[in-house]
């Protein structure tokens, strides 16, 4: 049955009018009597004042609760590179990645684990310090408190001219320099450069890789220059060996940024280089991870760096979990060399760099717990004197690696029968 020509023309004209006016699609019942007028479709119904307020509130609430993508594709690409160069468990904007435990949850897991749980103590609250740690801790505290003369006095006048009225250098910062002035000037220029880079990184809110390249790496280079027995390496991509993993899935994997290593050479008299090579030939791990060149160089000090955009707890949690794996590896060496079960492991310094501030903590296995003594801030790279402080602290730690840590490895790498002989 065909519709009357007049009706078809009316419907087509009405549809054209709706399309031209941008009206909404409607559902009609059958029959010509159900057709609305064009005005009824495209003319909105007026709202009273109360209805308009309710509509506005609903729209605002909808905007606030609507999920939005956190990063653009360009930012995702840049952050994927940063993840390779950084050990952070959060992305470079400071937003935690999904699928990973938060620092707080990991800290709780560290405290509740049955396998050498972590207990933290502020080192300044200790009434007595373990003897093997006392001298080192006191020296670092003196450096951090600004009670050490670290800058040659040939720079006192220029530093005073550069400083503000309320930020003049303290007389106690300087010592009398008699010789090697050209070498001292080169070192001072490097300190100034590190300080400028540190301020620039904060001003530009740089990501962690930029801080590592422009500031932290240069501090370590300057501090350890010329020290053949001790060196540092970037170990961001080194993963803990499975044999030293924690049983708890939340604590199974961890990484840090840098390591300071003992570098024994075959020319030395104590034969440590040869004994370390023997350990390797017996499949005894020298570190709890694999270096890119498989070098038999024991890890002495672990360093984790974070920007101020990261959760402050995150670096401390990473270091604590990492050092627990380090202790497992050291205990494994003691066991494989058939030493007595009561054989004492060393106290290990760990360094946490948060923004521009360097802090030295100490980890120690004591009475079935992993004790972490926290709280010696040794310098701030936002000032030239702070750069001198950090370098002085790293050099003092390097001296500990060369002496105390080396002695522990020389004694431990031997079989008990050889030691007694």
Major sheet? 7 strands, mixed
Please state how the strands of the largest beta sheet are arranged side by side. 1-9-8-7-6-5-4
State the end-to-end CA separation.
117 Å
The structural class is alpha/beta
Question: In short, what is this structure?
Answer:
With 421 residues, the protein is an alpha/beta fold. The protein has helices spanning 5-21, 38-42, 49-65, 73-85, 103-112, 131-144, 156-162, 181-203, 208-224, 272-281, 312-336, 384-412, 416-420, and strands at residues 118-122, 151-152, 174-175, 230-234, 258-262, 299-306, 348-354, 357-366, 369-380.
What features would you describe in this structure?
The chain is of the alpha/beta class and 421 residues long. The chain has 2 domains: 5-63, no CATH class; 104-420, no CATH class. The chain is 46% helix and 13% strand. The chain is built from 13 helices and 9 strands. A 7-stranded mixed sheet has the order 1-9-8-7-6-5-4, sandwiched between helices. Strand 7 and strand 8 (357-366) form a beta hairpin. The radius of gyration is 33 Å and the shape is globular. Mean pLDDT is 83; it is low at 31-43, 57-85 and 89-99.
């Amino acid at each position: 049955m065909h519709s009357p020509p007049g009706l078809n023309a009316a419907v087509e004209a009405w549809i054209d009018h709706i399309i031209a006016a941008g009206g909404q699609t409607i559902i009609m019942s059958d029959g010509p009597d159900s057709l609305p007028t064009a005005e009824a479709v495209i003319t909105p119904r007026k709202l009273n004042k109360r209805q308009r307020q309710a509509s506005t509130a609903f729209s605002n609430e909808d905007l606030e609760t609507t999920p939005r993508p956190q990063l653009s594709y360009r930012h995702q690409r840049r952050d994927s590179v940063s993840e390779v160069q950084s050990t952070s468990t959060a992305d470079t904007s400071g937003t935690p990645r999904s699928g990973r435990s938060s620092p707080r949850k990991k800290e709780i897991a560290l405290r509740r684990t049955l396998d050498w749980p972590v207990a933290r103590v502020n080192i300044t609250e200790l009434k007595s310090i373990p003897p093997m740690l006392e001298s080192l801790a006191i020296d670092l505290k003196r450096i951090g408190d600004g009670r050490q003369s670290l800058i040659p006095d040939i720079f006192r006048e220029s530093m005073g001219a550069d400083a503000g009225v309320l930020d003049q250098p303290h007389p106690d910062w300087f010592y009398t320099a008699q010789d090697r002035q050209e070498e001292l000037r080169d070192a001072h220029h490097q300190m100034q450069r590190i300080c400028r880079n540190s301020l620039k990184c904060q001003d530009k809110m740089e990501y962690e890789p930029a801080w590592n390249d422009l500031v932290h790496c240069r501090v370590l280079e300057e501090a350890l220059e010329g020290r053949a027995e001790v060196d540092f390496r970037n170990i961001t991509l080194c993963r803990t060996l499975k044999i030293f993993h924690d049983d708890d899935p939340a604590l199974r994997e961890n990484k840090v940024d840098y390591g300071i290593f003992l570098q024994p050479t075959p020319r030395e008299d104590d034969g440590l280089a040869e004994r370390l090579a023997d350990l390797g030939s017996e499949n005894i791990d020298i570190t709890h991870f694999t270096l890119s060149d498989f070098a038999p160089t024991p890890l002495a000090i672990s360093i984790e760096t974070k920007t101020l955009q990261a959760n402050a707890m995150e670096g401390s949690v990473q270091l604590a979990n990492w050092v627990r794996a380090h202790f497992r590896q050291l205990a494994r060496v003691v066991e494989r060399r058939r030493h007595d079960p009561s054989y004492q492991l060393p106290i290990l310094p760990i360094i946490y760099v948060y923004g521009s501030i360097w802090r030295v903590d100490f980890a120690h296995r004591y009475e079935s717990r992993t004790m972490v003594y926290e709280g010696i801030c040794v310098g701030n790279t936002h000032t030239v004197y702070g750069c001198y402080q950090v370098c002085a602290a790293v050099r003092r730690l390097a001296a500990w690696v060369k002496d105390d840590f080396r002695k522990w490895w020389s004694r431990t790498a031997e079989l008990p029968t050889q030691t007694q002989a």
